[in-house]
Input
Amino acid sequence: MAEAARDVLYYGDNLAILRRYVPDESVDLVYLDPPFNSNRDYNVIFRDESGRTSDAQLLAFEDTWHWGPAAEAAYAYLTNTARNDGRVTAGVSAIIGALRAGLGTNQMTAYLVEMAVRLVELHRVLRATGSLYLHCDPSASHYLKLVLDAVFGPTRFRSEIAWKRSSAHSDTKQGRRQHGRIHDVLLFYTKSDEWTWNPVYTPHDEAYTERFYRFTEPGTGRRYGLWDITGPGGAAKGNPSYEVMGVTRFWRYSRARMDELIRAGRIVQPKPGSVPREVRYLDETPGVPLQDLWADIPPVAAQARERLGWDTQKPIALLERIIEASSNPGDLVLDPFCGCGTALVAAQKLGRSWLGIDVTYLAIAVMRARLRDSFGLADIPVLGQPTEVEGARALAQSPDGRYQFQWWALALVDAAPAGGVERKGADRGIDGVITFTDQHGKLETVLVSVKSGSVSAAMVRDLRGTINREGAAIGLFVTLEEPSAPMRAEAATAGAYHSELWNRDYPRLQILTVRELLAGERPRLPPFVLPTYQRAERVQLKQAAEQRELFG
Output
């Protein structure tokens, strides 16, 4: 059976990538957090699509779906056997048809149709022992459960997990007239009735400990409790009856086992004539088997060290819990909507292989930076990105290609998008920013302008004016097309930036072509360039930590 690539990022539509690159039954665990705006008013999700126009200021990872040609094509594939060649079951076709008939064609239906066609592929790539966790919010979870029941089968549903992602919505005084929504939903399904499962335990809460482990052993300080060992149901349940410490009862244990516990000092009589009880130590219990309400993992706080500035970032502890429970070291974890890459970081930390897919180069750039900073992985392959000029030109000319080309080109020069990682934004002619430190730690700025169409000396002149106006040290003009001699001459008139720290001059306005960048050429900048994206903290691999603990 063919194997999927491992530890690779893919740029592009995950549906096309799943069909082209990921073989049948090659993945052990799928986690997906499809973009969907839980902050949007619920009724707006159902609004009619007629007359809707695109907004250039939308978030880079825009999290709404629209009924249009793509949704219509997906619907036809799901409901027409001639289109899908029998790869979609009759149950899936029936559910999708019923949802469209009942809800109409709106954002919610588009979302469900686009999710269904992907879930069919995700079911295909899962191994027989594999599992899938779909992360969503309550506005769509009930519909998605119907779709998942159709794709996986109702008997393959395992859990609906509620993750408490915030403490409260305290906006009643501002007119809120409904219960505060403070949880997300994780829908857990398996490919078959035999799946990978590693029990996960959480600590007992303080009230439970105080109630059931209320004694402290003299000398050792160990907490313990006394537990009932009488056999419920007596003889009818097959429990033996005999005398222990002068008391005859039906007991949970056989006579031989009871004698072993007595010799070990684990059976005590609290007072003369009382029913003997078993000693159980708190430090010997693994904790509470994981339940379906997860209130012990907080969201990524504004000041958290792991926070990267990505709006939908999930805490790494959440993904670690899922991956530890439903995969083993060496298994392959797939995240088809991987955003800033938390699932990939958790998989790498826990000794799993991974595949990440995203449809924006912005996400790809953030993930590569995060994996590099977290683990020192400097050369992560990205399949689907241009490797030559014609591929770059095709990217620029694709739908929404202007921004995808822009983010891709900014990654080539290690620049952050202007205005941060979230917005396409009004940029005043500036698409990206690089910062570096010079003499006495002074922070200096490099402004980057990216052009995918025709270029002229006037554009270079405009960038020079912006550099002067903004007080920037250096400007980079990145162009897909070859620059003319007048453009080169215009750039030369900008002069040089002199670094006091390094006592060197650097061209103040540099023109770099995509051809040069793909060949390995890089901007000429002072060495102390700051990280493009917020640096992720270094992650300690779990195996290394366990070894250090084992050997002291």
About this structure: The domain at 389-518 is CATH 3.40.1350.10 (Trna Endonuclease; Chain: A, domain 1). The two ends are 43 Å apart (CA to CA). The longest helix spans residues 107-125.
